[in-house]
Each structure stands twice: as structure tokens, then as C-alpha cells.
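pasting for ref
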Amino acid sequence: MTDIIELLFQKNCHLEKFFRLNEAELLNFSDGNFDNLETFYHSRESLLEMIQKIDKRIEDSNSVAVDQTVATDAEKKKILEAIAYKNELVTRILAQDLQILSIIEKAKSGIIKELSSVKVARKAMKGYHSGGGTSQLDEKA
């Protein structure tokens, strides 16, 4: 039972790291700084892989029959606290992810608008350049 409790605490530790990573990068994104986007996603992916491995270990340990009467009240309380904290972290992470997606979507829309205006400006510039051709002086005149 202590193994499961330890795994739950490890999982929560990784979720806390995930939350702090999101929090730090959310500040950068809010300032329009997307320089670390690739590193950010790679770090998130690594943390998610670690969490999946821990989940697999928890699942494997659950496959062994455990007599619930063997678990003490203190152990049950720790498990319930760890699960409640995990749920709180996941809810907060989901809220962060929505903020991150919103910021990225706004930046993407801004880039698309900028590209569109550049395209219109190029068309206008081509209009000024076309039709002028090369002017030659009439040498006989």
C-alpha cells in the first residue's frame, strides 16, 4: 500500500512541475515571447511521459489483489488526499492550457492578418510598377 501512496505522490510531484512550467511560459506568451515554444512543448511531453509511466506502475500494482482491511486509516487518508490534490492540479493545468491556447490563437490570428495586409500591399505596389514599361527617348527628335 505504501508503494501506491509513493507513486501517487510522485505523480503529483510531476503534475506540480507541469503546472509550474505552464505558469512560467504563460507569462512569456502573455508578453508575446514565443522563443521557447519548442522547448516548452518538449518539456511538457517529457513530463507527460513520466506521468504515464507512473500511471502504468500504479495500474500494475493494482493488479495484485490487496486486502482493503490491511490498509490503515492513515494510508486511506493519504491516498484520498493525494487523489484530491491530483484532481485540483489537473483542473488548474486545464485552465492554464486554455489560457495558453487562447494566447497562441490570438498571436496566430495577428500573424494571419499581418500576412494578409502584406499581400494587399504587394498587390498595390505591383500596380504602380506595371504599365510603366521602359521609356526610351526618340533619338531622331
